[in-house]
């Protein structure tokens, strides 16, 4: 039997459903998901097996017009993921159709593909009537030379098996790149930090989720089989610290409880999670913070 393996970059506008699709393909929550844009900040790999093929999915930050250093580093990471992949899957939101953002991505794609297959995945088909899909498919295929078009719902699972099957047979012949039972290669410290950031993003409003970052500072294995995890939430202003803490500390308490519960499920053991909020006005310009996020600091330069 010949084995196949390779990298599949999931790209698209923020909120297109890339992380949801990665998690569904892998069968576990490897990448955080929220209803807000710009949730994913760095490339996150998830591994799935299909027959003799090993599919290494690369979730990427959404592609948008960056304003800040962090935005630029995120967008660079996303394009970098596309540039390194064997196959690119572009996710489009069915109900939003061809936005200006989608047009810009199609232009950018032309420069990075170099003959590699690009599949179109029209996502969130559960949100539209089927007649919309036909014209959208046609328009998109006129705008770009896609190898194949799939209509999916990453959330409900529609069409995902077809996409997986096509990817499995389209990947190049290659030995597997990861052990057969491995599903992710993100360090646990980072997965843990991401879980806390997801809960913060879900609870906090407006700009605040975009002005904070979470890092796991210490991870201690305890004799009773549990883990003690200490995390720092960096915010840019004293006022933000107050909001993250909440009245009598109720916000931070709810966030850390939710994150701890999810971590315990993921790890299959007890966790003691301690989150501390620290004001660091300039964290968005600190190299160390980017390295912790898995981003290249230099990519943020103008
Ligand atoms: N109705 C519907 N919602 C979906 C579907 N797929 C994803 N979503 C929702 O869309 C929102 C964004 O999903 P994500 O997976 O975080 O999107 P993303 O592309 O990773 O977003 P960024 O990380 O911000 O770039 C979440 O609320 C998901 O639950 C789908 O097939 N149908
Ligand atoms: Mg995401």
Automatic annotation (TrEMBL):
Single GO BP term: ribosomal small subunit assembly
Gene3D superfamilies listed in its UniProt record: 3.30.300.20, P-loop containing nucleotide triphosphate hydrolases (3.40.50.300)
Record's keyword terms, sorted: Cell membrane, Cytoplasm, GTP-binding, Membrane, Nucleotide-binding, Ribosome biogenesis, RNA-binding, rRNA-binding
NCBIfam families found in the cross-reference section: era, PRK00089.1, small_GTP
Region (G1): 12-19
Domain of life where this protein originates: Bacteria
PROSITE patterns xref list: G_ERA (PS51713), KH_TYPE_2 (PS50823)
GTP-binding in keyword set: yes
Principal cellular location given in the protein's record: cytoplasm
GO cellular component: cytosol; plasma membrane
InterPro entries hit by this protein: G_ERA_dom, GTP-bd, GTPase_Era-like, KH_dom-like_a/b, KH_dom_type_2, KH_sf_prok-type, P-loop_NTPase, Small_GTP-bd
The keyword Transferase belongs to this UniProt entry's keyword annotation: no
Residues annotated as binding GTP: 12-19, 59-63, 123-126
GO MF annotation: an example: GTP binding
Protein family (similarity comment): Belongs to the TRAFAC class TrmE-Era-EngA-EngB-Septin-like GTPase superfamily. Era GTPase family.
SUBUNIT field: Monomer.
Designated name of the protein: GTPase Era
Region feature (G2): 38-42
Residue ranges of every copy of the KH type-2 domain listed in the record: 204-281
Coiled coil: none
Region feature (G3): 59-62
Annotated Era-type G domain residues: 4-173
Positions of region (G4): 123-126
Membrane topology: Peripheral membrane protein
Region of interest (G5), ranges: 152-154
Function as written in the Swiss-Prot or TrEMBL entry: An essential GTPase that binds both GDP and GTP, with rapid nucleotide exchange. Plays a role in 16S rRNA processing and 30S ribosomal subunit biogenesis and possibly also in cell cycle regulation and energy metabolism.
């Amino acid at each position: 039997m010949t084995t196949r393996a390779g990298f599949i970059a999931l790209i698209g506008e923020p909120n297109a459903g890339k992380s949801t699709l990665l998690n569904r393909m892998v069968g576990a929550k490897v990448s955080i998901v929220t209803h807000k844009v710009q949730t994913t900040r760095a490339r996150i790999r998830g591994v799935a097996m299909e027959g003799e093929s090993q599919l290494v999915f690369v979730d990427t930050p959404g592609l948008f017009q960056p304003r800040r250093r962090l935005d630029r580093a995120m967008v660079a990471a996303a394009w970098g993921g596309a540039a390194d992949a064997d196959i690119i899957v572009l996710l489009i939101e069915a109900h939003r159709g061809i936005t200006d953002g989608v047009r810009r991505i199609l232009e950018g794609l032309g420069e990075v593909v170099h003959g590699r297959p690009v599949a179109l995945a029209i996502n969130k088909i559960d949100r539209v009537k089927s007649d919309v899909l036909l014209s959208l498919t046609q328009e998109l295929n006129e705008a770009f030379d896609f190898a194949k078009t799939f209509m999916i719902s990453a959330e409900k699972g529609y069409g995902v098996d077809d996409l997986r099957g096509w990817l499995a047979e389209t990947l190049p012949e290659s030995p597997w790149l990861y052990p057969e039972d491995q599903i992710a290669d993100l360090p646990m410290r980072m997965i843990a930090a991401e879980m806390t950031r997801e809960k913060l993003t879900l609870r906090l409003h407006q700009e605040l989720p975009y002005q904070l970052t979470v890092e796991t500072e210490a991870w201690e294995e305890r004799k009773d089989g549990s883990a003690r995890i200490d995390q720092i939430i960096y915010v840019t202003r004293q006022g933000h610290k107050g909001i993250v803490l909440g009245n009598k500390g109720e916000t931070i308490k709810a966030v850390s409880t939710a994150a701890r519960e999810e971590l315990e499920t993921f790890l299959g053991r007890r966790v003691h999670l301690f989150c501390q909020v620290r004001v660091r006005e300039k964290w968005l310009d600190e190299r160390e913070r980017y390295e912790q996020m898995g981003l290249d600091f230099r990519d943020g330069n103008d």
